[in-house]
């Protein structure tokens, strides 16, 4: 299986690419109007990428003559809808958003993705520049030689923190994971009106943020082919992450994912927020946080620094009734022009040319925090791992058990030994299933 190893740093993955992509020559007779009059049904995750892109929906329809029909849901509801449609082999969805690091192996095994590799070789506009896309992110979407999606962004959880609150409370910038607890304790004593630390607590969503703690503290999901939560490193990561949320997190944190975290921090009600870099535009909406925020990767632990780094992709359903028109939408949405537009609205670009674009550099220079955001993303690109959850076909289900282990400690319904043992048993059972 040609797939990016989930624990491989992105910089190393660039050197270890196993798929040889031929030079792409644009079709001489490429015509953006080739599918005029067709309709493409797009199932979107209501996240910053889709909401930003869809502001330009009219441009796509004017360029191609293709009507774009959009159904947009929050992430969990989107996946529920998508699973129902694809399980039924229905043509109700033509294009959908996917996380290769999460469901890629599962969806590929089920035959739900259309292979996009032939399109990138034969049906591509002259200015598309497929080779400009991040090789590591392209590789992450390759399963059994099939290209299942085109990269939309690069992202990972980063620490947003309030410099004014840190200064008022005499808290230094955290240099180690253990400093987070020290900082949170001081902030709680200094400013009772502010939530000291916030991150994901929702069971199916928290593996995204918890994984960074696990890897930085020297742990891994598997050791010698078995679940490794009950190793000293695994138990330390569970205890640390759950303890921060239990003792210093917001009320109801077990229901928190990206939306709640962004709202809380933007409103000035959390001092530290460990959440997606992809939420940068939403966090900064209104401008209140631009002047009192600093950004950084999660501080290193005993295992070093191994930030979580992933990217969304855009895929065509294997059951689409209009796959060629669907590819035109994918091609437009992931084109250099559109990714440059989105970059200047806070969507981290997966194209090297966009990062070096003069307009993008000028946009970054307008606000120091924007440049800090890009610098932090570069650390993620250089050092990151895309291992989120157990690297198995049933990865999405594995995240429920990871979340349950954290929630057991967060809610005080069991000890760390009980939590890790239950997780190991469940995850080993998943790993044994095909």
TrEMBL record:
Keyword S-adenosyl-L-methionine on entry: no
GO CC terms: periplasmic space
Main subcellular localisation: periplasm
Localisation: Periplasm
Key word 4Fe-4S present: no
Record's signal peptide: 1-27
Record key words, sorted: Cell membrane, Lipoprotein, Membrane, Palmitate, Periplasm, Signal
Entry's family note: Belongs to the bacterial solute-binding protein 1 family.
Protein's UniProt name: Carbohydrate ABC transporter substrate-binding protein, CUT1 family
């Amino acid at each position: 299986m040609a797939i990016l190893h989930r624990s491989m740093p992105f910089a190393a993955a660039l050197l270890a690419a196993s798929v040889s992509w031929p030079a792409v020559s644009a079709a001489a007779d490429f015509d953006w109007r080739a599918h005029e009059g067709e309709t493409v049904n797009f199932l979107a995750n209501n996240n910053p990428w889709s909401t930003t892109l869809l502001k330009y929906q009219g441009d796509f329809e004017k360029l191609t003559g293709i009507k774009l029909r959009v159904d947009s849901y929050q992430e969990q509801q989107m996946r529920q809808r998508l699973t129902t449609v694809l399980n039924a082999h229905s043509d109700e969805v033509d294009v959908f958003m996917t996380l290769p690091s999460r469901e890629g192996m599962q969806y590929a095994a089920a035959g739900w993705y259309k292979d996009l590799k032939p399109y990138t070789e034969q049906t591509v506009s002259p200015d598309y520049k497929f080779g400009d896309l991040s090789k590591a992110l392209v590789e992450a979407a390759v399963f059994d030689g099939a290209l299942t999606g085109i990269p939309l962004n690069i992202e990972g959880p980063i620490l947003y923190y309030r410099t004014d609150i840190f200064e008022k409370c005499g808290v230094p910038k955290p240099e180690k994971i253990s400093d987070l607890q020290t900082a949170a304790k001081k902030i709680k004593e200094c400013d009772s009106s502010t939530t000291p630390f916030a991150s994901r607590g929702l069971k199916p969503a928290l593996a995204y943020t918890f994984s960074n703690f696990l890897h930085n503290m020297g742990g891994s999901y598997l050791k010698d082919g078995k679940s490794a939560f009950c190793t000293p490193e695994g138990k330390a990561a569970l205890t640390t992450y759950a303890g921060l949320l239990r003792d210093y997190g917001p009320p109801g944190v077990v229901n928190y994912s990206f939306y709640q975290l962004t709202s809380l921090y933007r409103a000035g009600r959390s001092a530290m927020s460990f959440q997606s870099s992809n939420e940068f535009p939403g966090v900064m909406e209104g401008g209140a946080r631009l002047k009192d925020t600093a950004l950084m990767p999660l501080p290193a632990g005993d295992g070093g620094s191994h930030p979580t780094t992933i990217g969304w992709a855009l895929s065509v359903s294997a059951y689409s009734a209009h796959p060629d028109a669907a590819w035109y939408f994918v091609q437009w949405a992931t084109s250099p022009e559109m990714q440059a537009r989105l970059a200047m609205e806070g969507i981290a670009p997966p194209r090297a040319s966009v990062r070096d674009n003069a307009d993008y550099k000028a946009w970054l220079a307008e606000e120091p925090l924007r440049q800090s955001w890009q610098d932090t993303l570069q650390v993620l690109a250089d050092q990151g791992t895309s291992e989120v959850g157990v690297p198995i076909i049933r990865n999405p289900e594995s995240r429920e058990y990871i979340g349950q282990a954290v929630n057991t400690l967060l809610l005080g319904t069991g000890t760390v030994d009980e939590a890790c043992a239950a997780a190991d048993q469940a995850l080993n059972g998943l790993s044994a299933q095909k």
